[in-house]
Amino acid sequence: MTQTSTDLPSGAAGETFRQTLGRLASAQKGAARSAPAYSRFVNRRIGRVLAAWAYRRGLSPNAVTGISALCTFSAVALLALVAPSTLVGVVVSVLLVLGYAFDSADGQVARLTGTGSAAGEWLDHMVDATKIVTLPIALGIGMYRFDVVEDDLWLLVPLLHVVAGSVYFFGMILTEQMRRAAGVVSTAATGGRAPWLRSVLGIPTDYGTTCLVFVLLGVPTVFLVGYAAIVAATVVVALAAAVSWYGQLRRLASAAGAA
To answer: Where does the sequence pass through the membrane (predicted)?
Structure first.
């Protein structure tokens, strides 16, 4: 069925889907030089298409966040409740990819419509915080329930992911809030030499990489090696970031004391 202009939001009346995409592109935040490759080059573009679709159907940013949560937590439930297989792995991966893309789309819709709010940002962060914890927990539960591994030590890998992922996320949010309280507004570096290099180096800790590794779920040995590599990289990055953040806050405190 062809949608008439009266079904569209006022800003979309009379414009094509391609034109909506163009307006979204002009409303984008600058792509951070350090943003991992999948998030920067793939997820944001998929999210833009989904944002155009959501906008033309009059969905609010919070509704888009809700769709993201539905996709993500459906994948989480599958990991805990259904025996691992190639099909399950593909479905889980697709759901996680869609959830991540809609997570990008909600902010794009908010910027396009000028309807961003503190409450919407809070909701988005709460969904992120929940998925960071529940995804590896669900994986561990599924591994235990369906005897995926012979050595139970492998069950410690998703538990380590819970700790590293949640600490890294909390540290990032807390540091940003404390920097804002000190009057420092973070800006993403969008230039510099070889900006693609940092994006490529960030692939192991990219959430998109985590989404895609579940395609290997039907081959447990290969999956666990890939997943363990992601967790190890997350631990290293979380530790390095914690040292950097602590140093930044000490310097801010020193500068404030000197002033």
So the answer is: 76-102, 153-175, 196-219, 225-246
